Every structure is written in C-alpha cells, then in structure tokens.
C-alpha cells in the first residue's frame, strides 16, 4: 500500500505539472501587463519543479526511495576533527530541514573539548537515502585551527556513512536469539531522568559482531526500537559489501579501503573552496555549503554515477 501510494503521488505530480505548464502557456498569450509578473514567477517555479523531477529520475536504485541512517565519525586530527564532525552534523541537519525531511539524532558520543566523536542520525523522507548516498566517504577540512594557540593551519578528516533504513527486507532476517541486549545509564544530556534510569541500549549481533547503541531518547523502549533500526540497516550494508567483495574477487580487482576514499575537500584557508573530487564540482560559497546547501554536489554526483550500481 505504501508503494502504491508513492506511485499514485508520482503520477499525480506529473499530471499537475502538465496542467500548470498548459495554464502558463495560455496566460502568456494574453497581453496583460498586470499578469506578466505573476506568469514569470510561475514559470520559475515550474522550471525548479522540472529540475527536481529530473534529479529524481536519477534515483532509481533499489533503496533510493527509503529513509536513511546517517553516521559521522571523527577521524585523524584530534579536537579539530571532532569539531569538524560536529560541523558536518549541523550541515546535514540543516539540509534535512530545508528539504522537509525529519531528522533525529539517535546516538552521540561527545568530544572531550569540542564537537563530537561520532553521531548516528535517522533521516526520514521520500528519497532520503537516494540523495544522501552521494555523501558516503571521507570529508576533509583545511582551516586555521581555533584550538591551536599558534593559530596554524590544520587538516581534519571525518567519515560519513549512509545506510538505507529498510522496514522489511527478505534478505535480512534477525533472530532475537542472536542478540545480546544491554542497558545502561545514558552518559549524555537529558536531566535527572536520563541519568538515574538505564534508558540507553546497546545491542550486539553475535554472528557478525556488529554493535549498535542508542541513548538519546528518554525511554528505553524507544532507544531499543531505534537501535534495531540501525542494526537492520548495518546488517543490510554488510550483506551488500560482502556481495561486492565476492564480485571483485571474481574479477580480480583491488578494493580500496573506504576510509581512504576522500570524496570532498572543504578549504577555509588560504582560500575558500569546496570541491568534490569525484565530479570536480566546486564552489567558493563554503558558508552556504556548511549551512546545508549541498544539493548541487548531490545532483552532480547522481548525474556522474548514471549506470553505476548503488
């Protein structure tokens, strides 16, 4: 029923767009100066809608329509990298807000001085995974460090993981007997309620060794449900990686480590530039990018990856 509703919305959206184009075409034939400004606004809105729908055509992967799990991990660089991971968290939260997606932080490990060591975020919205899969990989920041007394230039790294959040999948069957579920007191903010009760949940999948934690909700039940969502997404990702490795072994190709696959550089000094190394798309508007304006990077990646498997 959910898939049927999506198809109906897609068809109705195209029909509405066709009607708008027809109406605008008729109005342009009228020589009325009072209508001209309104017609120009409508034409710009139609053009924006067409661009968005062109981008969606590129989102044809099996899980592209699904919600996403986004994880950010600070890399080499100490406090600077933890601060950089926090900046990326803000960037993706702002991007989600602008797109009308619902983003919720499921688990966060705070940095000692600033920023975060890691965070896990659920992003709910149609095509959330399809858009965000363009962000997988290592993100590099070059700037004058605010944590260096000599104010020297530092390079920081953070790894971004993006997983499809699949409600049901025939390939993923979780046996509850294979899970070890531990509860503990949350170490994060949340007041006395969180600190006094064991609301945080850690789930270990014994066959694979995968461990997921969730502690940002006040309810142990909610944290357990969120942890299961993350575990299901990670098991699906593990299964996909195993398939890729099997194919690469057959082909005899070398598989590069994901942590070494730097995808984008954000340079604040000695000049300002954000450049994606996969597509060569770049922009000097680094403040806009860090404020969530990453759609141009996403679209460039999707167009460059036509014909590739997700």
Give the SSE map.
Layout lengths: L1 H27 L4 H25 L9 E8 L4 H21 L2 E9 L5 E9 L3 H5 L4 E8 L8 E13 L13 E6 L6 H6 L3 E6 L4 E5 L5 H32 L10 E6 L5 E4 L5 E2 L2 H5 L4 H10 L6
Brief digest:
The protein has 310 residues and is α+β, with helices and mostly antiparallel strands. It has helices at 2-28, 33-57, 79-99, 128-132, 191-196, 220-251, 286-290, 295-304, and strands spanning 67-74, 102-110, 116-124, 137-144, 153-165, 179-184, 200-205, 210-214, 262-267, 273-276, 282-283.
> In what order do the strands lie side by side in the largest sheet?
2-3-1-5-4-9-10-11
Name given to the CATH architecture of the largest domain: 2-Layer Sandwich
- How many angstroms does the end-to-end distance come to? 25 Å
Q: In this structure, how is the largest beta sheet organized? A: 8 strands, mixed
> What is the CATH C-level name of the largest domain?
Alpha Beta
The radius of gyration computed from the alpha-carbon positions, rounded to a whole number of angstroms, is 22 Å
Averaging pLDDT over every residue, what do you get? 85
Q: What is the number of helical segments per DSSP (H or I, 4+ residues)? A: 8
In the CATH hierarchy, the third-tier topology of the largest domain is known as: Alpha-Beta Plaits
What structural class is derived from the secondary structure elements? alpha+beta
User: Which term fits the overall shape?
Assistant: globular
Range of helix content: 40-55%
| DSSP, total strands | 11
As a percent range, the share of strand residues is 15-25%
SSE series: HHEHEEHEEEHEEHEEEHH
Structural domain tally: 3
- Low-pLDDT parts are 189-194, 253-258
């Amino acid at each position: 029923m959910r898939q049927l509703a999506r198809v109906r919305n897609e068809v109705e959206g195209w029909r509405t767009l066709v009607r708008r184009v027809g109406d605008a075409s008729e109005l342009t034939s009228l020589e009325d100066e009072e209508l001209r400004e309104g017609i120009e606004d409508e034409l710009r809105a139609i053009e924006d809608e067409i661009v968005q729908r062109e981008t969606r055509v590129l989102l044809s992967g099996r899980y592209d329509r699904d919600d996403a799990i986004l994880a950010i991990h600070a890399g080499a660089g100490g406090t600077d990298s933890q601060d950089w991971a926090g900046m990326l968290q803000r960037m993706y939260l702002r991007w989600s807000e602008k797109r009308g997606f619902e983003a919720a932080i499921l688990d966060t490990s705070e940095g000692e001085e600033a920023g975060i060591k890691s965070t896990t975020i659920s992003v709910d919205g149609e095509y959330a995974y399809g858009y965000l899969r363009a962000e997988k990989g290592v993100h590099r920041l070059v700037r004058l460090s605010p944590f260096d007394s000599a104010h020297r230039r530092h390079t920081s790294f953070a790894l971004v993981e993006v997983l499809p959040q699949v409600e049901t999948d025939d390939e993923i069957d979780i046996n509850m007997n294979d899970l070890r579920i531990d509860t503990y007191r949350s170490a994060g903010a949340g007041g006395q309620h969180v600190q006094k009760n064991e609301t945080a949940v850690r789930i270990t999948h014994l066959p694979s060794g995968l461990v997921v934690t969730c502690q940002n909700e006040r309810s142990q039940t909610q944290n357990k449900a969120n942890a299961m969502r993350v575990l299901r997404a990670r098991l699906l990702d593990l299964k996909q990686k195993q398939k890729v490795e099997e194919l690469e072994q057959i082909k005899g190709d070398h598989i590069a480590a994901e942590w070494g696959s730097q995808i984008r550089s954000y340079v604040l000094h000695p000049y300002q530039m954000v450049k994606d190394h996969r597509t060569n798309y770049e922009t000097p508007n680094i403040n806009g990018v860090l404020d969530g304006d990453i759609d141009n990077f996403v679209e460039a990646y999707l167009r460059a990856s036509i014909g590739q498997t997700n």
